[in-house]
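Quick one - first record:
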Amino acid sequence: MVGVSTILVPYHLDERLPGLDVDLPGDVDEVTADLPDGDVWSRLAALYDAVAGAVERTVRDGAVPVVVSGDCTVSIGVAAGLQRAGVDAGVVWFDAHGDVQTLETTTSGYVGGMSLRFLLGYRPELVADRIGLRPVPEGRTVLVDARDLDPPEAGYLGSSAVTRLSVGDVSNAVLPAGPLLVNLDLDTVDPAHVPGLRYPAAGGPDAPTFLRAARRVLDSGRVAALNVACTWHPGHADPAGVRQRLVSGVM
C-alpha cells in the first residue's frame, strides 16, 4: 500500500493499554478518548466515535488509514469512519475465531467475540447507531480461517451469505468487489509462534504463511483501511521478535 497513515488505538475494548509491544514506523496519530462512566456500550461508542473521526480525516486527506489496535472490535469505528468519508467498503476478516457470537449465544460474554457480527448489523442500538454505522452486507464479507467456532457461530455462518476461506485459499478472485476494510487479527497465526495471545487457538498457520495471504489482499490496490489487531497480553516476552515482524510485515 502507498500513502498510508498510521493510527494507534491502544485499547482492548474499553481498557486503555500501557502499550502494544511493537514499534510503529513514521508519524503515528494516537487515538485517546475520555470514556464516560456507565455501561460498556456507551464507553465503546465514545472510543469508536473517536476512531471513526481519525479514519475519516485520514481518508479525506488522501491516505489509507492503517489502524494498530488491541482488538478486532475497533473495526467498528474504522468502518464508520470510512462511511463518513463516503467509502462503502466490503470486509475481509482474518481471525482464528468467527467473531460472530451474540449476547444471546455467547457463553463467555466476551464482547470481542461479537465484533464481526456487529459490523453485519447485529443489535445496532448498542454501538452502531450511536456512531452512524450502516451494516456491511453479508454478501460483501469474507471470513478467513475462523478455525475455532462455537456451535452457534457455525450455525449462523452456515446459513449466511458470508464467504469463508482458508488462509491458503485467499486470492483476489474471491475478494468482495470495490474498496475493502481489512481486519487482521494476529491470533490467526498459530499460538506456538506468537507468545501471550489472549485467546489462543491451536492449528493455525505459521507466520510466513499468514503474511503471504495477508499480502495478497493488501497488495490488491483496493484496501481502503486496515485494522491490525494485536490481540496479546501486553508485557509478554517475545525473544524471537515474532510480534514485531508480523506487524511490520503488514504495514
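second record:
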Amino acid sequence: MLDQAIQLHEAGNLPGAEALYRRLLLQDGRDVRAMHLLAILCAQTGRQAEALEWIKRALTLAPDFAPAWSTFGNLLSERAQWKEALAAHDKAIALGFVEVWSYINRGKALGSLNRPHAALESFDAALALEPDNAEALSDRGVVLMALGRPAEALDSYERALARQPVAATFSNHANALQELMRPQEALQSFERALALNPDRAETHWNKALCLLRGGRLPEGLALYEWRKKRAVWNRPGHSASPEWTGAENLEGRTLLIQAEQGLGDTIQFCRYAALAKARGAHVILSVQDALVRLLQGLPVSVCGAADLPAADFHIPLMSMPLAMGTTLATVPADTPYLFAEPERVAHWQSRIGSQGFRIGVCWLGAAGIETSRHFTAERLAPLARLPGVRLINLQKGLAPPVAGIEYLGDDFDSGPHAFLDSAAAIQSLDLVVTVDTALAHLAGALGAPTWVALKRLADWRWFQDRDDSPWYPGMRLFRQSAPGDWDSVMSQIETALTREHLSGR
C-alpha cells in the first residue's frame, strides 16, 4: 500500500496518495514513513502547520529517522526559523542523510543567518556530490557576492545558467556584472531575466538601480516604481486619496507626501516638498517621528508618520523625482534647505571651539545598513595625526576607539529627535568626512563642506564614476579603486586635505 501511495504521489495524484497514507496510519499509527510522506504532501498543498505536526510526530516516534529531520529543516526554513532549521539539517546529515539537497538547504539556512563562509562550505559540499546542480551553483553565487567576491560569483552564476536559465539567476548575474563595473552587460542580463519572467519585481528594481547609477533618471525612476511590488517594500500608512502621478493639477489641492525608506532618504528627498508647493499645492510631509523637528524649517507642513490627515492626493516620497520629471540636468540642488537651531549652534560652537582645522567624522551607519559601506575608526588614524587637524566624532553615543578623535559626550543627539545636535555641530566645523549614511545627506542638506567615502559600487544616488554630486553642490566623492579597498580612499582624502586645506597652515 505504501508503494502504491508513493507511485500516486510521484505521479501527481495527491488526493489518491493522501488517502492511502491516511489509511496506512489508521492501520498502524506508528508508521513513521507514512507520517513523513504525508507531511511532505501537506506542505506541497499549502498546509504547513499540519505538515509540521506530522513531522514532529514522526520524529517523536523515530528520533533517528534522518529524512524526517531534513524535511523538518525545510519546513522550518519556510517559516524563516533559520537557527532551528540549521539544527535540523545538521541532525539529518549527522544521521547519514548525505544528499545534495541536504547541503543546499543547510547552506540556505546558514546564508540567512549571515554566516556566508559556512554557507559557502555547504554549497561546495553539495557541488562535490553533484557538480552541475544549478541551484547549488546559483546559491553559491549569492554567498560569494555577500563575501565581496563578484568575479567568482559571476562564474558560479554562468555555470548555473548554462544548466538552468532562470530569471532570478540572470538577475543575480546582472548584479555581479554591476559590481564588476560592467553596466552595459548587466543591462543585457536583466533583459534576459525579464524575457523569462516579465513580472518579477526584483529584476525590474535591480535594473532600475543600474540605470539610475548611469544617470539615466527618466528610465530608471520609472522602473524604480516596481519597488512597490517587492515583498520588502516599506509601504507608507494607508491614505484613502488617489496617488499623485505628477500629471494631476495641484493648484489649491492638498498633497500628502509620505516617507517610506531610511532617515537619509527622507533628508535627501524632502526637498521635493517645496517643489510641489510651487505648483500651488498645500503640502503635508509625513516623515519618521524622529525627523519631524529637524524638518520643521521646510516651507511645508511636517507631521509624524502616524498623523495622516485627509488629502486630495498622496504620494510616497521616493516617487516624487519621477512625478516631477527629474533628469540629471534638472536635479533640484538648491542648498541649504535644512538649518540647525541657532541656540544649538551657539552651544556646540562653544563646546567645540575654534582651534585647528575641525573635521567631523562618521565611519559607521545605522544598524541594518550594509557593512560594505563602512570602515573601522582605525582607518581615520592617519588624518588624526596630521598637524593642525582636529577630528570631531559625529557618531551618536559611540566613543571613538582611536586616539585623536574627540568625543562630544553621551548627551550628543541623545533625545528623541534625530540629528538636532549633529546639525548644530556640523555648522561649527570646517569639513565633514563621512561614509555613505544619513549624516552625509544631513551635511549636504545644510550646505556644509562634505567629503563622502564610497565603496566601489556605491548607492545609485551617487551615480557612477563621479567625484561630485548633482544633489549637493560642493560635495566631494572619494571612491574605492577596488571592492573593499578603503586604504586608497583614505589616501585620496589625506592627500586632498593636505594639499587644499593644510598647506598654508
